[in-house]
Amino acid sequence: MDGSSVKIGCDCDQLAARQTLLSHTDAVQVALAQVQPITQFETVDLAAAQGRIAAQSINADEAMPSFDNSAMDGFALRLGDLAGRCCLPVAGTVAAGDAPRDLPPGDALRIYTGAPLPRGADAVVMIEACVDKGHKVHIETPPAPGANIRRAGSDQGAGQMLLAAGTRIAPHHVGLLAANGVRGITVTRRPRVALFSTGDEVTDGDCAPGHIKDANRPMLSALLAQDGAEVHDLGILPDDAAATEAAFRALGGAYDLIVTTGAVSMGGRDHIRAALCAAGGQIEAWRVALKPGKPVMFGSLNGAAVTGLPGNPMAVHVGYHMFLRPQLARLTGAAPQPFAEMPARADFDWQRKPGRAEVFPVCLIRHDADGLPVLRRLGQGVSATLLPLAQADGMAIVAADCASVAPGDMLHWHPFNTFGGCA
Ligand SMILES: Nc1nc2c(c(=O)[nH]1)N[C@H]1C(S)=C(S)[C@@H](COP(=O)(O)OP(=O)(O)OC[C@H]3O[C@@H](n4cnc5c(N)ncnc54)[C@H](O)[C@@H]3O)O[C@H]1N2
Ligand code: MOO
Predict the structure, then answer these.
(1) Of 123, 150, 177, which residue is a domain's last?
(2) Do 326 and 196 share a structural domain?
């Protein structure tokens, strides 16, 4: 990190005069430094735990499976009874849910998957390897000792860690915990996020001439909710210094994170930075060598981190993934994930002006012989529209010093959770 990221208080002129842009990797560190892990926890039903962050590790009370059982539909038998014989009498049937029983000497028992292994049995032969003749079974090839038996404790031992603290709970965790009889789980309180748009031109209603509809608040609300935040939508601030300062002052200490969009660049009506300072906040850094998203600002107010994203919607989307997601992760005690780490290859030619790292929408067109995704660049680097992003399978990034990309060059990308590639 260079000297440009040191604490600079609220001297906005000094900030504006600084020519050096923060690298996007340093900016992530500054963003992270504004938040501390939440130390309040709550217990939620397992059914409501998906997406929450486990506050404590959970260990298994007991071994699994808790009893020896059959992994297949077939016949349970004693291998010694097969010595010199290929046919055994069938003494009955044991199904999943039945109580454990004894295997009578010299007999087989028909058994279904998940049924408790009869006491005395030492192998299960699959139904496909037998001829079931009703009261007897013909076994062509004797099974190996222990075949098709799931032994008690073979999946997990008692005390086995099922879930580590800091894990984001996914549906497969819910299933594992349910199988282990866990009903409630202690999770970190959801991060409380205050969300503002800014701009006299921005509206939620009908557009007068020169006005536009708010894209940023609905998109950020959706992204924040998806990542488990408790979103407090505080509406649209006018381009007015006093109103912006008053809005910051009114926030008190109720939030972990305050997110604004717009009014953070150089214009005469860009009031976010000055208003934050006037309201008693701190600006830690401003302006990042990132396209889109250059005028992003990081600060704090009353114990909350304040992240001021630029107004252009694509810059908001990029800023969310690059800075806000790591901030949310640290707040909840989860490990912040680096942005766009997945390797891929380009299928396009692109000459660009070096200086800022650039994030752009991409679609997945195929996989190469090494199995790497091959990506096509979408859009024309315009940050005012989300349309190319809506047609994309993810976002790729090139480094600030990158002057050109040629087909076959390595890229890094952040895939969305979409299925299938672009047409
Ligand atoms: N002289 C300079 N001008 C600009 C610079 C610069 O470095 N020097 N940076 C440019 C970059 S990069 C960006 S990005 C924008 C960001 O400016 P602001 O953060 O002050 O944002 P606004 O001016 O308020 O808005 C920018 C753009 O986005 C539209 N917008 C705003 N809010 C919303 C919303 N909620 N939904 C949809 N669209 C929104 C707004 O109408 C503007 O068109 O500054 C450049 N200028
Ligand atoms: O953030 Mo701006 O959108 O780089 O053009």
Answers:
(1) 150
(2) yes
Q: What is the pLDDT of residue 9?
A: 52
Q: Say yes or no: 281 and 203 in one domain.
A: yes
Q: Is the CB of 74 under 6 A from ligand 2?
A: no
Per-residue pLDDT tens for 341-350? Answer: 999 999 999 9
- Supply the range of the domain harboring residue 354: 342-415
What is the residue with the minimal CA distance to atom 4 of ligand 2?
292
> What ligand 1 atom has the least distance to the C-alpha of 310?
19
For ligand 1, say whether the CB of 155 is within 6 Å of any of its atoms.
Answer: no
Q: What is the 3-state secondary structure (H, E, C) of the chain?
A: CCHHHCCCCCCHHHHHHCCCCECHHHHHHHHHHCCCCCCCEEEEEHHHCCCCEECCCEECCCCECCCCEECCCEEEECHHHHCCCCEEEEEEEECCCCCCCECCCCCEEEECCCCECCECCCEEEEHHHEEECCCEEEECCCCCCCCCEECCCCCECCCCEEECCCCECCHHHHHHHHHCCCCEEEEECCCEEEEEEECCCEECCCCCCCCEECCHHHHHHHHHHHCCCEEEEEEEECCCHHHHHHHHHCCCCCCCEEEEECCCCCCCCCCHHHHHHHCCCEEEEECECEECCCCCEEEEECCEEEEEECCCHHHHHHHHHHHHHHHHHHHHCCCCCCCCCEEEEECCCEECCCCCEEEEEEEEEEECCCCCEEEEECCCCCCCCCHHHHCCCEEEEECCCCCEECCCCEEEEEECCCCCCCC
Q: Are residues 226 and 322 in the same domain?
A: yes
Q: Which tens digits make up the pLDDT trace of 366-410?
A: 999 999 999 999 999 999 999 999 999 999 999 999 999 999 999
256 with 319, same domain: the answer is: yes
Which of 128, 150, 172 corresponds to the end of one domain? 150
**pLDDT at position 1:** 43
The answer to whether residues 224 and 318 belong to one domain is yes
Q: Is 271's C-beta closer than 6 angstroms to any atom of ligand 2?
A: no
